[in-house]
Design a protein that fits this description.
Layout lengths: L2 H4 L6 H11 L6 H12 L6 E3 H18 L10 H11 L4 H12 L3 H4 L2 E2 L2 E2 L5 E4 H4 L1 E4 L1 H7 L4 H21 L9 E3 L4 E5 L5 E6 H6 L19 E5 L19 E5 H5 L14 H13 L4 H9 L3 H19 L14
Antiparallel strand pairs: 1-5, 2-3, 4-5, 6-7, 7-8, 9-10
Helix pairs in contact: 2-10, 3-4, 3-10, 4-5, 4-6, 5-6, 13-14, 13-15
Length: 338
């Protein structure tokens, strides 16, 4: 599974945007900071944003993350990040930070923002006009993205992805594979550091929503992270009473509208129909294709290869069906999204 497979044959603007956020091979957090800056500024189509316009919010977003996680790049040093660190500690020198951001902060990220997988996306959310006009010009596509039904979810998805990536860098993903766990009480994802201290990472809803393209896992209706959405166990939580393990694993968590999960005729503690198992497999492969840290978590929970992971799900399903019987099948309310 790849970013290209995530972006469908007739992709929406949201799919292109989520491809940028979820499937980039990040070496620094600048892409997340630029995405958040654009979403927060909400510039209209055709507007020229000079680098000096972008710089305060762009650097401020990075400085805010530096307060929580000092590792914002895989490089050993960065003059720009050092300037952001100083501002994060002493916020009185904003003018100097803006100057440094304009000089250093946008060198690579503006060119790289629309790169997903092996090349540039055919859709651009801004045009690079640094040489001609000292900034970027917002396109119609970005304005349409802001007007979409999925727009309220996008900022939380960027923040969640940023939190996951920086946590992996902080813990040293290359030598110490990070394990993301789920707290069913708070619906938060967390990890445990080398001192066995628990560290919250991000909301489960905002972490998973983009990979489901903002849709209910079961019926494909649009969902909103902040309201009317449940974190559901595909294989129901009731199985924990028997010999089943890893029910709370990220591999088994999906986002559902309230109607499908616990409305009239809803899933409740039933096992979903076997037809939905391939959908869970695809969703999990999207997570794995997004690189660290959810990649490592899913692989450790379900298998090293696609074949092993499919075998894991099939075996789990066969055992669960023997316990629960009478599978539940939802009625699609929108076009299949994944």
């Amino acid at each position: 599974m790849s970013a290209e497979e995530f972006i469908s044959r007739k992709p929406s603007l949201e799919e292109y945007w989520r491809g940028i956020i979820l499937f980039g091979r990040n070496v620094a957090s600048y892409k997340f900071a630029l995405a958040k800056t654009l979403l927060e500024m909400k510039p209209e189509s055709g507007r020229l944003l000079k680098l000096s316009d972008l710089a305060p919010l762009f650097a401020g977003n990075i400085a805010e993350h530096l307060k929580r996680s000092p590792k914002q790049t895989t490089s050993t040093s960065s003059s720009f990040l050092e300037a952001c660190k100083k501002y994060a500690i002493d916020s009185t020198d904003e003018n100097k930070l803006v100057e440094e951001t304009v000089r250093l902060g946008f060198v690579n990220v503006i060119d790289a923002f629309h790169v997903v997988g092996s090349g540039l996306l055919p859709v651009k959310f801004y045009i690079d006009e640094r040489k001609q006009n000292g900034g970027i010009r917002i396109t119609d596509e970005f304005s349409k993205l802001l007007a979409s039904i999925q727009s309220p979810n996008l900022n939380a998805e960027v923040e969640s992805r940023w939190n996951l990536v920086e946590r992996a860098w902080e813990l040293g993903i290359s030598t110490n594979l990070i394990a993301i766990e789920h707290d069913a009480t708070t619906s938060e994802l967390f990890t445990v550091d080398s001192s066995r201290r628990r560290k919250a990472v991000t909301s489960c809803r905002s972490a998973l929503n983009g990979y489901q393209k903002g849709k209910c896992f079961y019926c494909y209706t649009d969902i909103q992270i902040d309201s009317g959405t449940d974190v559901d166990h595909f294989f129901p939580d009731t199985l924990k009473k028997s010999e089943f393990t890893s029910i709370d694993g990220v591999w088994n968590l999906v986002l559902s509208c309230i109607n499908c999960n616990r409305g009239a005729g809803g899933k409740f503690d039933k096992i979903p129909h076997i037809d939905l198992l391939s959908r869970l497999s695809r969703r999990n492969e999207f997570l794995i294709a997004s690189h660290h840290p959810l990649r490592e978590t899913l692989i450790s929970q379900t298998g090293q290869t696609v074949s092993e992971r499919k075998g894991f799900l099939n075996d789990f399903y066969n055992r669960a069906e023997a316990r629960l019987f009478n599978p539940w099948k939802p009625e699609p309310r929108d076009v299949a999204a994944f």
